[in-house]
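Supplementary Note 3. Input sequence used for the single-chain structure prediction.
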Amino acid sequence: MTGLGLFLVGLVVHFAGPTWIQKLMPPVVTGSIVALIGLNLAPAAWGNVQEGPVTATVTIVAMLVAGVLFRGMLGRLSILLGVVVGYAVAVVRGEVDFSEITQAGWVGLPDFTAPSFHIGVLALFIPVVLVLVAENVGHVKSVALMTKRDLDPVTGRALMADGAATMLVSSGGGSGTTTYAENIGVMASSKVYSTAAYWVAGIFAILLALVPKFGALVNTVPDGVLGGA
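The predicted structure, written as discrete structure tokens, is reproduced below.
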């Protein structure tokens, strides 16, 4: 229902133009909401760092060194390199349990769950649409600044895509989607703005979802590495 609400807002923005919503949610509003979301997530990252301070520190240092010293592809993959180095250190320190990977199969389907509707809780979720609209608009503005392009005309499409994706993923029991600031941060860090890269990333994500061993591998990533990344 939240995804549907967001999709309808995007539909209106697409055909009526984004001017009205930008007046309703100026940069001071969208920027503040995006910042608040990040600040609210910061304690979770810090909690992960506290779970593995040594591993987290190594991960952070590896990312910074790769970003500063390397150029080209290696420099753009600084975050991934940091995670790989941090994971290797976690293995050496005995923080990784490989038993789950051993037991997992090579090919399999995710667990799907049909949606259920509880009218009593809808009032708690529908207002989330307002936050998602502000977040999406703020992210579109951020990408526009990074790419030096006018993306206002596609704001409605971004909102519709977010809403449609949320409806699709929730129909199988997955979590709602949004335009994650983390991914936009990766864009800023890597200087890769090509939409083709995200097509490839999406296809690989779907294929990897069909490999239980990869899912088990992801589950073994220690909290310290996640906090550092």
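DSSP finds 14 helices and no strands in the chain. The chain has a mean pLDDT of 79.
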